[in-house]
Amino acid sequence: MIARIWRGVVRRADGDEYADYIRETGFNEYAETAGNRGAWMLRDDDGDRTEFITFSLWESVEAIRAFAGPDINAAVYYPEDERYLIERDATVSHYDVVDRDVGTRSSATIGHGGGSVSRSNSVAASSPRATKPRRTPSR
Known about the structure:
The chain is α+β, with helices and mostly antiparallel strands. It has three helices and nine strands, in the order E-H-E-E-H-E-H-E-E-E-E-E. Strands 1, 2, 3, 5 and 6 form a five-stranded antiparallel β-sheet that branches. A two-stranded antiparallel sheet has the order 4-9. It is globular, with a radius of gyration of 15 Å. The relative contact order is 0.26.
């Protein structure tokens, strides 16, 4: 199994809206791609900025390629990303999963600084979309 990690930063005022946008675009596309084994969105509100990290698990390089295109190291962006993102990485990171801890809790909320961070074992729901946003790999 392979973990794929992407990061980007938005203005804090756009944080909730951008989280919804990630769910509607990237997470829906993850769920529609054969070989995806789940995705998690991590969020850190810090001052006037919000950092997002997406963490997805994949069966194989071929499964990642089905999502990302021929250059699996290129980050995938959607049309409205340009409007939200004030920092974004052109590439993603991949890691071989060598071990896992299978917990008994299905979800938890962990205290973090002035707020809280939610963690859930749920996978993004696959829901049909009327139109599929056009995406482009970063170059």
